[in-house]
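for ur thesis appendix - Lipoprotein. copy paste whatever u need, i formatted it the way the template wanted (i think)
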Amino acid sequence: MKKRLIKMSIKGIALMVVLVMGSCDNEDSTTIDEGSSIEVVELVASDEADLISEEIANIGEDVYATEEIRATSKAFFISNYLPDCVTITTVIVNGKKETDIDFGEGCELPNGNLLSGIIHLSYEKEVDMATKTISLSLENFTFNEVAVEGGASLDRKRSNDNGNPESHAVASYNGVWPDGSAASFTGDRTREWIEGYGSGFWADNVFLISAQGTYTGKTGDVYSRETISPLRRELSCRFLVSGVVEVSKNDTSVSLDFGDGTCDAKGMLTFPNGETKEIFLRRFNK
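the 3d part is after this line
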């Protein structure tokens, strides 16, 4: 990784896949259940939008966390999650640190997501503050070929009531997909870092996530999402391992249970009529 003022790498990214749709045998269906107004194609796009928003927030927060740990621990902290194709540059302007996380023309993360462009961070330079607000914006940014504009504000506590780092992120983005379709998505999430903080080994990090948000698709339909039971993310696993989310459109709602803690691609979907079905998370079902 190149160095200009401060060289950093971060521990990883907690992915919140807020909704998943369908199994291998119903990919051609247009609605999630007979009589439902919730369309699978919109749920797929909504899921991707949630992933984009969460991953952007986590990259920004984790870059800051690396600096925080270095400043508050006796040992030099380093994590090797971000690849060498990422350039991180920090300067001090008017008492604030301005950090650019540059993915260049295209940089693939260990989880397979391909990013390009720049994530800008701005925050007070005093790292020992108990709470910190981090402003985040994007420049010429793409996520798996989706052009994304917008930004987020992250309020970070070094220690919550449980003694763990916690962040609250409010985000608003617009995305244009490779086929020219556009959507907007907002999110409001809280993430508690319950295991692995400061260990120097990103794969032992565990988070609990609660969130709510909206997704407005290319047809103008609005979907709302809400965490019913906190989502558990273990960075050693590429999937959410437990927790429940609900998605609603008008008066129709479906829920997805991510399981009992097992690291697998399965979830239990509950349809509007009360029926349930085990599904594979479509994003990783390849």
